[in-house]
Structures are given as C-alpha cells and as structure tokens.
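The material for today's practical consists of a large collection of protein records. A record pairs a protein's sequence with a compact description of its fold. Instead of coordinates, the fold is spelled out as a row of discrete tokens. We will come back to this pairing of sequence and fold again and again. Here is such a record, shown just as it appears in the course material.
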Amino acid sequence: MTSRSLLRTLTAAVAVAVVALLPPPGAGAATRTPNAVLLHSYQPVLVFHPAEPFRPAKVQSFIGNSVRERFVGTSLAQLPYDPFWTVVDADPEPGELPPPTPGASYRLDEANCEADAALGGRDCYADAASVGSGGAAVYGRVVRTESHVVLQYWLFYYDNPLVLPPTPFGSFWQSHEGDWELVNVVLSANEEPLEAAYSQHCSGHRMAWAGVQKSPSESTHPVAYVALGSHANYFGPGAGPFGEVAINPSCVPAAVRQALPALPFLHVTDQVVDGFAVGAVVGPPGSGVESATIHRIDGTAWSSFGGRWGESEYFYTPIPIGPVPGGTALPVGLAPASPAAHTTWNIDSVLDWPAAP
C-alpha cells in the first residue's frame, strides 16, 4: 500500500470513529419538550372568589373597545389626569400598537367604562368583558436559560376594582383599568418542576413544587387562588370566611398610604376564597372546569406596546381625609404597563421573589 493510500485509509477510519461518537440526528432535540406541550402540561387552575365577576380575557376585545390616547401635558405630575390626554387613534389594532417611543406617552382607554365610576366601574367592565372576551384565556411564554426553564402564564383582566372591607362610613375602593397578573412554573434545565411563583400586586411569592396544591385531575397543574377584585394569586385559600391576606404595603399608592393611618378602622386586605365558598374554577381545556385557552405572547406588538393598559388608577374615600374631599375618586397613579415592560418579563426578578410565608 502506498503512503498516499495509507493516509486515505487512516483518514476514513478517523471519520467513521468521530461519527460513531456523535449523538444520532435529533437526539438532543428529543430531550427538549416542545414549548406548547410544556405550557399545556403545567397550565394553572385558577380558583375565583364567589363574588368575582372577571375572568382572564383575550386582549383583542379590550383593545377593540378602546381608543389610544397620547399625553399632551407639560409635567409628569399631570399624567394621571384625564384632561391632559387626547385621542390619536379611535380604532386601534392589536398588531399596530407602537413600541416605547421617546418623548411620547400613550395609553389605551376603554371607551364605554370609567375607572372612577362607582366601585371602580366594576359592573360596566364586567359586562364589557362578558360580551367581548370570547371566553377565558391565558398568554403563555417559555424562557430557557442554562439552569432553568420558566413557564409564564400572563393573565389579563379588564378591570382591577379592589373594594375594601365595609366600614361604618361606606365603601373605600381602589381601581385601575386593565390588570396584568402572572403565574410562573419553574423547571430545572432537565424540565423537572422545582417551584411555582405567583404574582401578588407589585411583587410575588414562590413555593417549592412539592408544597404547591395541584389539580385533583392532573398532578402537573398548580392551583392558584385569585383574590377578589385585585386578582393577586395565592397558594392557598384563606382561614376565614373570605380568607384575608395582607396586601404588600409597598404597592399601595403614596397618596393612599399617607391616608391609611387616619383610617384605623380600615384593613387593607385581599379577600381569597375559603374551602367552602368556591366561585368559578378556570383551567386547562378538557379538565372538567371552565376552560381557558393558551395564546402566544412573544413577538406580538401589543405585548411590547409602549403605553399603559387603561386610564388612571383611582382611590375613593366616602369621607374627607385631610386635603382629600369625601365622595371623590382621586387619581393616584397610572394603569399597568405592557407585559414586556414589567420587571417580571425578566425571569431573574421572578426567581428573586421571596418564599411564600
């Protein structure tokens, strides 16, 4: 055998050996479950308070019933006030909402309801949602890192009418149009469930997967108890008739927080269903409960809309509190930002949430 023939033979042998060591085609991909399958496998079951009129809705109908407005004021202090906003698009489309625009502030404004109406406009928004939403929906997203796979289930509600417990002076309430909430399921890089993380006002809590309540019909579906009006998510029902869970005080608007010391009779709480008074239960299609379909959120124009999902946030007091006149819904902030503008779009912030108490 010539030296050239010997070289060709050795080269071929090495090539065969290298190929033998490589995984078969598609072997690596076979260990990665498709995103859609993961999202369906771990879709949460949502348990609502008996008095809760809202369900997580599709965004298309809310946008279709809204106008897009632009801020025309000259000071950031004017942002919560309606007179400083003007309509720039009377018929916005979900796929045409603009991203963040330097020097411009936008918001959607549901045209038929007002967040400063009685009880935060709850009945009006509930009627609009029941007519136009087309059934309950969740928006699914999968984020993969070297150490985790995080399944995010974004939930949109037409309104956040948090009516506080009754007082001898009447009802106090806080409301804002549009409400984004979030349930996360955290998996290992090998797709083993590690924990769940539920949004609660401006933050959230995590719980180890072994301690999370699961659907009786399917052990991969975590159960979240949805607070009345605020739509915060909790890992269990309350201990009392409506199960009171204290609100994160850092999430109460400054104007409201300053007023609370003057209201010792008012307890700022979330009302979560107890084990004996369950309202609607919403979960995966085919699971025997009211079904919620999963829709895509990544890459949609509306998910990164550079504006707010509604008109201003309001606080209502039936009695005078210092400079705040009684019977007035005071603008105290803005409606929620788009999902991609939330800190929780970055899963590192979710993984930093504290453990549930």
Notes: The first helix runs from residue 3 to 21. Confidence is low (pLDDT under 50) at residues 1-30. The longest strand covers residues 148-163.
